[in-house]
Amino acid sequence: MDMGLDGKVALVTAASRGIGRAIAQELAAEGANVAIASRNDDALKAAADTIKQETGKDVAAYVTDLLNDAEVRKLADDVEKDLGPIEVLVNSSAGPPTKPFEELSDEDWREALDIKFLAQMRPSREILPRMKKRDGGRIINIIGSHGRYPHAYAITAGVVNAALLNLTKALAEEGAPHNVLVNAINPGLTDTERVTYLANLKAETQGITYDEAVAEMCQDTLLKRLAAPTEIASMAVLMASSRGGFITGSMIDVDGGMTPCI
Fold first, then answer.
1. What is the pLDDT of residues 80-114, one digit of tens each?
2. What is the DSSP letter of 207?
3. Are 60 and 79 in contact (CB under 8 A)?
4. Helix (H) and strand (E) counts for the chain?
5. What are phi and psi of 53, to 5 degrees?
6. List of domains in the chain
7. pLDDT of res. 148
């Protein structure tokens, strides 16, 4: 199936590992010219090498701190100078640390907002106006199921994810007259470092083993397993593609049937 992505310029943030890297790889496999960004230089280079080995496509890698607005602006400028106008932006970001509610300080909440909400808002703020001027583009926010279905063991993620869902809907409304489509993907339990972190936290809090914590978490899904990052990436490719031309303002759960069970 031709997804209409051949030669399209796509920027994926937080793409050195996990879901971000899987999305970058799937976009490259469909022929897109992919740029990836991350703060971790070594991990970023390793991701670019892996994607090239798997797809045969060169990947442009940019060390960027999404917490710094000037660096985000430079990232957008550099990608457009090196590859051309950004036609697809995938906002991925790290999940915030969490702990029991009464132990969360004001600084913990600020950090949660900074490393997830603002790390996705800033690239959109920089690139959306460029897409509007060109009358076209796609923005895809990788958020998470806790924005709609909170858990106590992921309280900071739930709050910032809810904010990102709100942002997605608002940007979809703003972008629509200019054919800029803005959507969100809410991954469920996915085999990444984030789930490892949450399972360890759950195990410690409840006095159970790590494996017991993962098994208990998977019971919240109909499929009773973790997702592979590529299963999330497939939805991102659809949203970015010509096949997704009538999808905007959508917040799609890719969670193995977890949401009806909560």
1. 999 999 999 999 998 888 888 999 999 999 999 99
2. T
3. yes
4. 9, 7
5. -65, -40
6. 9-188+229-252 (3.40.50.720), 191-226 (no CATH)
7. 85
CA distances (Å), origin 234, targets 32, 106, 126, 134, 241: 14, 37, 26, 26, 11
Tell me what percent of the chain is helix, strand and coil, each rounded to the nearest 5.
Answer: 55, 15, 30
Q: What is the DSSP letter of 95?
A: P
Gap between the Cα atoms of 14 and 186, Å rounded: 16
Q: How many CB atoms lie within 10 A of CB 209?
A: 11
Q: DSSP letter at 153?
A: G
- pLDDT for 40-90, tens place per residue? 999 999 999 999 999 999 999 999 999 999 999 999 999 999 999 999 999
Instruction: Using CB atoms within 10 Å of the CB of residue 59, give its burial: 0 to 12 exposed, 13 to 18 middle, 19+ buried.
Output: buried
The DSSP code for 96 is P
Encoded amino acid at 140, one letter: I
> Which tokens sit at 19?
């879901």
Interior CA angle at 115 toward 103 and 261, to 5°? Answer: 70
pLDDT digits (tens, 9 = 90+) for 120-162: 999 999 999 999 999 999 999 999 988 888 878 789 999 999 9
Cα Rg of the chain (Å, integer) = 18
